[in-house]
Design brief:
Layout: E1 11-20, E2 23-31, H1 39-42, H2 51-70, H3 75-79, H4 88-99, H5 105-113, E3 125-127, E4 130-132, H6 148-154, H7 157-174, H8 190-214, H9 219-228, H10 234-244, H11 250-260, H12 268-277, H13 285-292, H14 296-307, H15 313-319, H16 321-327, H17 329-333, H18 337-362, H19 385-396, E5 400-401, E6 404-405, E7 409-412, E8 420-423, E9 430-431, H20 435-451, E10 471-485, E11 491-507, E12 511-520, H21 532-540, H22 542-545, E13 567-568
Parallel strand pairs: 2-6, 8-13
Antiparallel strand pairs: 1-2, 1-12, 3-4, 5-9, 7-8, 10-11, 11-12
Helix pairs in contact: 2-4, 2-5, 2-7, 2-20, 5-20, 6-20, 7-18, 8-16, 8-18, 10-11, 10-13, 11-12, 13-14
Keywords: Glycosyltransferase, Transferase
Protein name: Membrane carboxypeptidase (Penicillin-binding protein)
GO cellular component, one term: outer membrane-bounded periplasmic space
Length: 570
C-alpha cells in the first residue's frame, strides 16, 4: 500500500477506548506527529465515507420516529395520513405498517436497511445552491441498485446521496408549519421572508469571496486587481470610476480613462458625456454592476474599503445589509415564479440541514454547522476522529452517551499532612439513541468487516480461548482538494490540501476507537492510499492490542487496585 520511501511521510493517530461502568475509559491515545497538534481531538478533516455512518444513524432514528408515531394505528388511520409526494420516508413507513401491522421497531429497522437505492451517477442533483453530480469509487457499482445495508458494507456513494436527499425532504415536510407549502402558493407572505434570507445569505457568500480576493492589498493594488479583471471599454471604466470616486473632478476622471483605455483616448466631448451620465445617483448599484459587467457587491466593497481602509469583514457585512437586499431586488419583482422557487428551495435545504445538524450534534458531532449540501453524506462537512469514536461508543452502549474518562484518580503528598486523593465523579449516561437503533447499526457495521471494505480484519482478533471477537466499523478516504470549475463544468485547476484514510471501529463488546492516516499539504499529491491502509495497520497491531481486549480480569487495561476509596474533589 505504501512504498518504503513514503512510509515515514504518513502521520498516524490511534485511539482505543474501553466501555466500563465508570464511562468510556481512554486506554490508548497516540500519534507519530511529534508535535503539539492532536489529529484525534484538534483537527477538522474531511474523513470521506465515515460520514455515511452518521447518515445511517440519522436515517434509522427517523424510522424509529415514524414507528413511534404510526405504530398502533388502524389501517384506516394509516391510509388517512396526509403525506407529501416527496416525503418518501414517511410514505414507506406507512406502507410498511399497512403490510405489517404488528411489526416491532427492530423488525421495521431491519426492513429499512433492506430498502434499495440506485447507484447510478447519471442524475444531476440541485443542492448547495447549484447542480452537482457525484460518482462512485468503483465504476462497476454504477449499474447496481443495492440495499442500504450493502451500500454501507461496500461504501457506495450514490445511494447515500439519495438517502440524504430523502432525509432533507423528511426534515422539510415534517417541520412545524411545513415550509415546503411555500412552493405551491406564490402569494404566501412567508415567501418574501425566505427570499430576503436568501439574498442576505447569498450576498454574504459573495462578499466573503471578494473580501478574500482583495485581502492584504493597498487601495491602489485593489483598484489595479479589479481593473485587471475587466474587459476595458470607456463605458465600463466610467461607471466604475464614478461609483468608486464620485467626488473627483473631470480632469482626474479624464486622466483615469486615458491611463487605462487602450488605443486612441476618448474625445473631450465623450469624456464630458461619460462624466455626467454616470455621476452619483444616476444608476442603482445593481445597474452600475450591470454596466461595468461585474458583481455589484464587488463594486460596493471596493468603494467601502476606500472609505474604511481599516474595516474588518464583519464591519463590511453589517454595512452592506441594505445593499445585499438591493442587489437581489430582481427576485422580488420577477414575473418568473420558477426563479423564486429555486431560491426558496435553497433556503429550505439550509433549514433542513439545521435539523440534521442538531441530530448529529446529539450524537457527538463536534462542529457548529453542516455544509447544506448532499455532499455532506460523503464527508464534505468534515469530522474529527475522536467524535467518530464517541459515536461508535454510543452504538456499543445501546444508545447511552457516556462521559470520556482519562484519569481514574490522583494521589498527592503521600504520608504528609497534605495527602490528597482525588477520584473521578461518576456521571450517569444520557440516552441519545434507541437501543433498537444501536443494535441495528452494530449489525450493519459488523458486515463491513464480514464482507465489506474492512474484510481484511476477518478472524484477526480472538479471545484467549480462541473464540472470535465480534468486529465492526466504517472506513473512509478523503482526497481533499481545492478545485476551480469553469462555467461549463470543466475543471480548471485542482490543488491538493491533504489526504486522509480513517477506520472507526469496535473490537468485541467493550472496546472501540479510531485509526487515521494523514498526509498534510502539497505532499499528499504523491499518495494514493485508501482506507485499506488503516485497516491493515490495525490488523498489524493485533499482537500489541490482544492482551487489552480480553474480558474481565484477564485484560491488561484494568487499573491497579487502590488502597483506599478515592474521594471526589471539592
Amino acid at each position: 500500500m505504501l512504498s518504503p520511501s513514503k512510509t515515514a511521510d504518513v502521520r498516524y493517530s490511534f485511539t482505543l477506548f474501553e466501555r466500563t461502568p465508570n464511562g468510556n475509559q481512554v486506554r490508548v491515545q497516540t500519534d507519530n506527529t511529534h508535535q503539539p497538534f492532536d489529529i484525534n481531538e484538534g483537527s477538522k478533516l474531511e474523513l470521506g465515507s465515515t460520514a455515511k455512518l452518521r447518515v445511517m444513524a440519522t436515517y434509522l432514528e427517523v424510522i424509529a420516529e415514524l414507528h413511534a408515531r404510526h405504530a398502533g394505528m388502524s389501517a384506516a388511520q394509516l391510509r388517512a395520513q396526509d403525506v407529501a409526494e416527496q416525503d418518501l420516508l414517511s410514505r414507506w413507513a406507512i406502507d410498511y405498517l399497512l403490510r405489517n401491522p404488528d411489526a416491532d421497531l427492530s423488525g421495521m429497522l431491519d426492513a429499512a436497511l433492506e430498502r434499495r437505492y440506485s447507484a447510478s451517477p447519471a442524475e444531476r442533483f440541485f443542492t448547495g445552491g447549484g447542480l452537482h453530480t457525484f460518482g462512485n469509487f468503483r465504476r462497476e457499482d454504477n449499474g447496481r441498485r443495492p440495499t442500504l445495508r450493502e451500500s454501507l458494507q461496500e461504501s457506495i456513494n450514490l445511494p447515500f446521496i439519495r438517502l440524504m436527499r430523502d432525509l432533507v425532504r423528511y426534515s422539510t415536510y415534517q417541520a412545524p408549519g411545513n415550509s415546503a407549502a411555500l412552493l405551491k402558493d406564490d402569494k404566501d407572505p412567508r415567501r418574501q421572508e425566505y427570499l430576503s434570507r436568501f439574498a442576505d445569505r447569498e450576498g454574504t457568500t459573495f462578499l466573503l469571496r471578494f473580501w478574500r480576493k482583495y485581502q492584504g492589498q493597498s487601495a491602489q493594488q485593489r483598484l489595479d486587481t479589479f481593473i485587471g479583471g475587466l474587459r476595458l471599454t470607456d463605458t465600463r471604466l466610467a461607471a466604475v470610476h464614478r461609483y468608486l470616486m464620485p467626488d473627483v473632478d473631470k480632469a482626474t476622471f479624464a486622466g483615469f480613462l486615458k491611463a487605462h483605455l487602450p488605443g486612441e483616448p476618448p474625445s473631450a466631448k465623450r469624456i464630458d458625456d461619460l462624466y455626467t451620465r454616470y455621476g452619483p445617483g444616476a444608476f442603482s448599484l445593481p445597474d452600475q454592476g450591470y454596466i461595468a459587467r461585474v458583481h455589484p457587491l464587488e463594486l460596493w466593497l471596493l468603494a467601502y474599503l476606500i472609505d474604511h481602509p481599516q474595516a474588518a469583514f464583519d464591519d463590511a457585512v453589517t454595512a452592506s445589509r441594505d445593499q445585499r437586499q438591493e442587489v437581489y431586488g430582481w427576485l422580488f419583482k420577477s414575473r418568473h415564479k420558477s426563479a423564486r422557487d429555486s431560491r426558496i428551495r435553497i433556503m429550505l435545504e439550509v433549514e433542513a440541514f439545521l435539523d440534521i445538524h442538531q441530530r448529529w450534534q446529539n450524537l457527538g458531532y463536534p462542529f457548529e454547522y453542516l455544509v447544506p449540501s448532499l455532499a455532506t453524506a460523503i464527508g464534505s462537512s468534515g469530522d474529527r476522529p475522536a467524535a467518530l469514536a464517541e459515536l461508535i461508543g454510543i452504538i456499543q452502549n445501546d444508545g447511552l452517551r457516556l462521559p470520556t474518562v482519562r484519569i481514574d484518580s490522583l494521589h498527592f503528598a503521600t504520608d504528609t499532612p497534605y495527602e490528597t486523593r482525588l477520584g473521578h465523579v461518576l456521571e450517569p449516561g444520557r440516552r441519545v439513541m434507541a437501543p433498537e437503533v444501536a443494535a441495528a447499526l452494530r449489525g450493519a457495521l459488523s458486515q463491513v468487516v464480514d464482507g465489506g471494505t474492512a474484510r481484511r480484519l476477518q478472524g484477526t482478533f480472538t479471545l484467549a480461548d480462541g473464540s472470535p471477537l465480534t468486529l465492526g466499523g466504517k472506513t473512509g478516504t478523503g482526497d481533499n482538494r481545492l478545485t476551480s470549475v469553469g462555467r461549463g463544468g470543466q475543471v480548471i485547476s485542482s490543488r491538493v490540501q491533504n489526504r486522509t484514510a480513517t477506520f472507526v471501529f469496535f473490537l468485541g463488546p467493550d472496546h472501540f476507537g479510531t485509526l487515521t492516516a494523514f498526509v498534510p499539504g502539497r505532499a499528499a499529491e504523491n499518495f494514493r492510499f485508501t482506507s485499506a491502509l488503516p485497516v491493515q495497520v490495525l490488523k498489524g497491531m493485533q499482537p500489541i492490542l490482544a492482551p487489552c481486549l480480553q474480558t474481565a480480569a484477564r485484560t491488561l487495561c484494568a487499573p491497579p487496585p487502590q488502597e483506599a476509596t478515592a474521594q471526589p474533589a471539592r
